[in-house]
């Protein structure tokens, strides 16, 4: 069992314990243990076999270490199984409902036996909860709005989760007899923020189709076979995933891989271009009449159409073909181009690791600098920093910098933008920092006019360096708050404030569709992980994927610059 799967089971156990009314400290123990497993750099099975002990991980006590070892050995956690016998799996979906905290959730489950979003919606619409404390008319209206959003996103998943599942399946199935090659396709390969189905294209050796198709139906975690034939096997896999395996002959693989990757618009445009050249293009190959032309690679396929190879992230039918025809496609940013990152949290606020641990994790990634930006005091729920605590943290950063060679810790803050557009900390405090990330975390329901005014006022503060997670959206959970995009982006550009590309999997904004317009102002973006743990630093990879989708070059990204370049920007 891989660490991410074990962590998921621990998190589910913690949620089920919450429903059962368990001590909050016990719940947090499971959450901390899950975070510790997610932050591991080595394979879980290897660590258990060869050490060091799991109990040496921060957040994993002796008892939980033994439980995790048993989970890996047997494939299940006794407490997790017992709780699922007591509560249906659908109760876990209630945790996705915005505005439904642990206390309210427990009341619903224990007092009203509501164990699914559908049951909650029916109860709200029937007015059956009005006699419960905390479930007045306004609360029920908010819950119904949140349930409506949840319904819209049903059966969709975050792109990073899709990529991780795909990586696991590709790694496992590549070793199977009868499979020549397997690759990710579909919207996950194109780095769309969310995906519905996971598409994997499988090149099957001659005479092995029936065997491979049958074996796929017995994969670990399969809950239901949705369809099975000689060209496609569709499975429902635990976690609510639909995975479609496209089975093709080896010499059809590249064409099928390309076909099932491209968006509908991209593929339509390419087929029209093929017809103009007397060719036929489809999932089976490139044809001139009845002759199937050799397609050894995607590059070769595009050459038949007089185009340079188009990176999969850009295959959306939004002008990329015209760029390819003119040999004008950008050289896209790569993960290795990043020299460091900013917007990172530590245990000074709501992060899971101390400053030194986060710095070491950044150094392990080969970076030159790390910007610390814990929450400001208005975020009391996250342990936000007062001016005094921020200055104390600054002194710790100074001490750490004196000990470091070839690395710099930069002082910052994620400063709340208050409802009136003022910042949460005084100007003299902000002036002492290297950078300031200004973000909205509260009063999200303002009118578009008031939210625009709020953002504009914050941007006009001379100490603001970055505008954090611009829209406040939480993918598959919460839509953007209302504001005037054009006014806010124009003001940011006029004030020299960079709009960050927040790489946290549930944010992934600035939305890739708006990035070209932002870059047209002449200002760069900066890719930030909004990390709350060492493992969270690696989320910059999802920001890079989104940037590539928008056609971003390395020179368009602030944190591809070396330390001197970053400092010059801050001082400039």
Notes on the protein architecture:
- The chain is an alpha/beta fold.
- It has 3 domains: 150 residues, DNA polymerase, domain 1 (Orthogonal Bundle); 169 residues, Beta Polymerase, domain 2, CATH 3.30.460.10; 237 residues, Metal-dependent hydrolases (TIM Barrel), CATH 3.20.20.
- It is 42% helix and 14% strand.
- It has 23 helices and 18 strands.
- The chain has a 5-stranded mixed sheet, with helices on both faces.
- Helix 18 links the parallel strand 14 and strand 15.
- Helix 1 runs antiparallel to helix 2 and helix 19 packs parallel to helix 20.
- The mean pLDDT is 94.
Describe the structure concisely:
With 572 residues, the protein is α/β, with parallel strands linked by helices. It folds into three domains: 3-152, DNA polymerase, domain 1, CATH 1.10.150; 157-325, Beta Polymerase, domain 2, CATH 3.30.460.10; 335-571, TIM Barrel. It has a five-stranded mixed sheet with strand order 2-4-7-6-5, sandwiched between helices.
